[in-house]
Design the sequence.
């Protein structure tokens, strides 16, 4: 995606939604985001971890270590009650926006040719 | 050979030095690294390539660290690093403080000047804080808070609407009965009275209040009970009154004699109010039940046409003032019918503890509210003083930089950076400001607050220890002054280049035009205040030297408690060998004027002063006869028929030969038998037309006695002893020498003069300091030039002239502006004052101006002289050698 601002605005709700699917570790979050967006969302590590820690500071997510089959333990993140509440709020807001665009850019939508 | 584990270990070590990333974060990042590498390797990329690509994406330790730092700095900051930083900072501050102390100590003169200037300004700011905080918390201590309302009314007086703090007498009880929102209504009425306790006598006021007074207002009693307000023979007095009347003795139950205009009563003290807070604006000394006044003052509390001084209303809920005002409109009809010449248009009820900003415009408000104009003026003066002091500090600081250039240059060469240099100069500034602040607070406490208290009714308290607001204000003030005065010199100095300094090429800034304009302004201010101070001082001398129109020396006056005491007293006093003459009067010249109106030749009535006197009064007082004769006890036709007038009255009536003319006062006709010189009443410049009517009737409360040389004290003692013997139940209202009657007025005048002289001194001091700073800059900049001139043979006078040439021009300009301001201002002042009280003033001569110029010039010479001394002492060889 080209628009950095849109990406930045979507960063937190997307990340909360990804974690809401089930506890995930950092690398897994990046992979899943890439896959679900068909490669449109490409987060860098330096974006991801500070935001995760910020969410942790805000008590929206909590972290825990879990042993892995191959190699050392992984740090997983899961939503807290507060995080769920924040997500449902932000979700209804985004749904309003998508509904607005769906109606706006319906089948009848055309660009004014005179412009 | 590439080893992935080694590479990851090395990567981890590099990141471990970043203090915002802890080992937990590193574990997480390492796991991420491994996952990504594994995936890349699985897709066929060699491990080395995969490692490099992945770590590149992870970023450098510095970048990653700062990203992490944004989120978790406070939590993860390394405690030992923090300790280290604190230790370094304190060490630096200690070092800076030491250098600051040394440099301040070395430059004693500029330091002293700066400290004194800032201390004065900070003292003003501290006093203003006390003033404003007291004024804007007036009456806030009452527990019923914003439920207490103070009544006011609007009245149309010949077209202009005026707001008054008084209300019709019956309004309070009527509102309490009729309006459900009103819980209590307490009327307040102030009446002038003479209070006597034993030998002590005071002119004061009695405040009559309804019995609910103590339920509405919070004035705790120290002793006694509020029930005393229902007892017509008891009063409750303030702590201040108790101390004045009884000292440290118990006041409860003590008798007081109250003398009203219409009679006398003896009451006993039934309560003492605890000392009131300093922010109490509702002042009282004696409280008495409201109903008691009917008997004592002939005031009818049920009369809608009579106004009582004020009314407190306790509402059931706060914020109901407008509602109550709307309800109170129902009383307008009855009031307007009762008082045709005082048509009230509306009543208002303002919160007493938090009055509206316009409360100061209410006439006769029983508690004087804050005056925004006065407050604004005082705040502006303090702020202005502070700005002047800061500005002078900047000038002096820039001036004293030159000798320290090498210090600055060397510090820079050995690695001192800009921040450290700024810190150094700021530390110096903060140390200096702190010293000034301490002196300033002491100065405010010892000088300024007492001075304020002398000039205003409301007493200020400078609450030192308990007030958090006071200390935050002080610390804020310190920070503000330090920032304003210290920042510019510090930044300016720190910007010098070491190479320029050490090669001796550093140019110091020339005085900018605004610096000079500012200095001119300071001097205009200094000139104006000094001129005004001199004028006022000279005028007070002039006032004392003024001719009173009669001879007040060797004249004693006794004010009797009752008029039937006059005859016995006169008879006894006449027996005393030291007494030359004894006279009596109903009203006394210099003390209490009588008013009357006579018919002017144009047909209009003219206000005059009228004194009813016995045949001896004029001679006793030494009034100077111009023509005709004074009253004669031997002529029986004088009594009730003859009148002696003053010169002013003759002029006003346009009589060419006044003797034999008649004047009409009310229905009576009087023959003019004599004319006397004008005499002054108070300090009037224009004496009022005065008629002195010969009165046959007795009933003189003023007894005047002219005594022989050196007999004053003797006769005074004799008269007081005689009075005590003849009337053991009474006390003399007053006894004094006639030449002291204006003393109180002189005192008041002199207090104003003194206050003005203080202001002049401050303005002069600050202006001189400003000049000192500017001159020191000027001279340090030109020291090399001066040394060369000295070698070439220039005299000291010539050098002094060269250095100060521009200041002479500047000072002359200031003097011209100030003179213009003063000439216009004084004339405006005189004409403004004349319409209120025609105080006598001397003709405006150049003399006070010359004196003021000399004073300012002397101060200037002292300020500049210090620098000229520096030039004189400097050895040109030394200067030139070090200047390179």
Sequence:
């Amino acid at each position: 995606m080209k628009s950095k601002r849109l990406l930045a605005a979507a960063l937190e709700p997307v990340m909360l939604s990804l974690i809401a699917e089930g506890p995930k570790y950092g690398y897994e979050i990046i992979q899943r985001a890439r896959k679900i967006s068909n490669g449109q969302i490409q987060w860098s590590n330096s974006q991801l971890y500070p935001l995760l820690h910020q969410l942790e500071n805000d008590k929206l997510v909590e972290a825990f270590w879990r042993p892995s089959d191959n190699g050392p333990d992984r740090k997983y993140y899961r939503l807290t009650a507060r995080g769920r509440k924040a997500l449902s709020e932000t979700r209804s807001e985004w749904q309003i926006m998508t509904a607005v665009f769906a109606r706006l850019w319906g089948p009848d939508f055309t660009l004014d040719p005179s412009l | 050979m590439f080893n992935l584990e080694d590479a990851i270990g090395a990567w981890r070590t590099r990141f471990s030095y970043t203090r915002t990333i802890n080992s937990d974060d590193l574990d997480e990042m390492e796991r991420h690294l491994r996952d990504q590498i594994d995936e890349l390797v699985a897709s066929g990329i060699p491990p080395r390539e995969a490692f490099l690509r992945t770590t590149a994406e992870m970023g450098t330790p510095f970048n990653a660290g700062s990203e992490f730092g944004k989120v978790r700095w406070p939590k993860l900051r390394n405690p030992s690093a923090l300790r280290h930083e604190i230790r370094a900072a304190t060490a630096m501050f200690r070092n800076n403080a030491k250098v600051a102390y040394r440099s301040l100590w070395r430059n004693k003169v500029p330091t002293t000047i700066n400290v004194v200037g800032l201390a004065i300004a900070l003292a003003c700011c501290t006093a203003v804080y006390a003033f404003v905080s007291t004024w804007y918390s007036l009456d806030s201590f009452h527990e019923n808070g914003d439920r207490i309302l103070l009544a006011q009314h609007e009245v149309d007086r010949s077209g202009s609407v005026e707001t008054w703090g008084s209300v019709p007498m019956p309004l309070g009880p009527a509102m309490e009965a009729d309006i459900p929102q009103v819980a209590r209504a307490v009327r307040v009425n102030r009446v002038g009275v003479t209070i006597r306790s034993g030998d002590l006598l005071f002119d004061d006021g009695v405040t009559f209040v309804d019995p609910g007074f103590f339920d509405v207002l919070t004035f705790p009693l120290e002793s006694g009970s509020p029930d005393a307000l229902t007892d017509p023979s008891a009063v409750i007095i303030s702590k201040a009154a108790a101390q004045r009347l009884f000292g440290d003795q118990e006041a409860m139950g003590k008798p007081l004699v109250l003398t009203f205009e219409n009679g006398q009563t003896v009451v006993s003290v039934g309560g003492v109010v605890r000392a009131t807070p300093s922010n109490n604006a509702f002042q009282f000394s004696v409280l008495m039940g409201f109903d008691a006044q009917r008997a004592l003052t002939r005031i009818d509390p049920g009369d809608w046409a009579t106004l009582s001084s004020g009314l407190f209303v306790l509402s059931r809920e706060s914020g109901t003032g407008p509602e109550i005002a709307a309800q109170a409109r129902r009383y307008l009809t009855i009031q307007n019918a009762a008082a045709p010449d005082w048509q009230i248009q509306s009543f208002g009820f303002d919160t007493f503890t938090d009055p509206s900003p316009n409360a100061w415009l209410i006439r006769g408000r029983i508690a004087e509210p804050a005056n925004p104009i006065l407050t604004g003026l005082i705040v502006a003066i303090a702020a202005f003083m502070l700005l002047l002091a800061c500005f002078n500090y900047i000038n002096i600081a820039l001036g004293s930089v030159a000798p320290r250039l090498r210090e600055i240059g060397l510090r820079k060469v050995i690695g001192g950076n800009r921040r450290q240099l700024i810190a150094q100069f700021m530390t110096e500034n903060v140390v200096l400001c702190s010293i000034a602040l301490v002196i300033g607070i002491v100065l405010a406490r010892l000088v300024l607050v007492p001075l304020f208290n002398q000039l205003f009714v409301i007493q200020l308290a400078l609450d030192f220890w308990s007030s958090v607001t006071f200390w935050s204000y002080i610390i804020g003030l310190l920070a503000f002054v330090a920032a304003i005065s210290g920042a510019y010199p510090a930044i300016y100095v720190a910007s010098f280049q070491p190479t320029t300094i050490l090669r001796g090429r550093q140019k110091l800034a020339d005085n900018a035009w605004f610096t000079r304009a500012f200095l001119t302004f300071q001097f205009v201010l200094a000139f104006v205040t000094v001129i005004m101070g001199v004028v006022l001082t000279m005028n007070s001398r002039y006032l004392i030297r003024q001719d009173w129109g009669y001879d007040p020396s060797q004249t004693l006056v006794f004010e009797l408690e009752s008029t039937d005491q006059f005859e016995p007293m006169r008879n006894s006093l006449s027996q005393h060998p030291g007494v030359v003459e004894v006279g009596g009067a109903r009203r006394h010249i210099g003390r209490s004027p009588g008013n009357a109106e006579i018919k002017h030749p144009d047909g209009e009535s003219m206000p005059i002063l009228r004194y009813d006197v016995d045949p001896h009064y004029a001679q006793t007082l030494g009034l100077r006869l111009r023509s005709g004769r004074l009253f004669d006890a031997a002529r029986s036709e004088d009594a009730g028929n003859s009148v002696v007038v003053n010169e002013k009255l003759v002029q006003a009536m346009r009589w060419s030969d006044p003797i034999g003319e008649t004047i009409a006062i009310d229905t009576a006709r009087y023959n003019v038998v004599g004319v006397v010189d004008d005499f002054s009443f108070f300090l009037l410049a224009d004496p009022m037309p005065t008629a002195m009517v010969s009165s046959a009737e007795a009933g003189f409360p003023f007894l005047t006695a002219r005594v022989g040389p050196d007999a004053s004290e003797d006769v005074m003692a004799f008269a007081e002893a005689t009075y005590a013997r003849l009337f053991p139940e009474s006390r003399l209202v007053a006894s004094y020498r006639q030449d002291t009657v204006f003393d109180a007025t002189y005192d008041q005048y002199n207090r104003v003069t003194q206050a003005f002289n203080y202001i002049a001194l401050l303005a002069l001091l600050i202006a001189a300091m400003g000049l000192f700073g500017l001159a020191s800059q000027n001279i340090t900049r030109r020291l090399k030039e001066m040394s060369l001139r000295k070698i070439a043979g220039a005299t000291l006078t010539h050098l002094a002239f060269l250095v100060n040439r521009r200041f002479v021009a500047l000072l002359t300009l200031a003097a011209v502006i100030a003179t213009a301001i003063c000439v216009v201002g004084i004339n405006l002042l005189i004409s403004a004052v004349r319409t209120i009280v025609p105080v006598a003033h001397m003709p405006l001569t150049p003399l006070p101006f010359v004196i003021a110029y000399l004073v300012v010039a002397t101060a200037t010479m002292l300020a500049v002289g210090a620098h000229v001394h520096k030039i004189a002492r400097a050895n040109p060889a030394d200067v030139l050698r070090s200047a390179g």
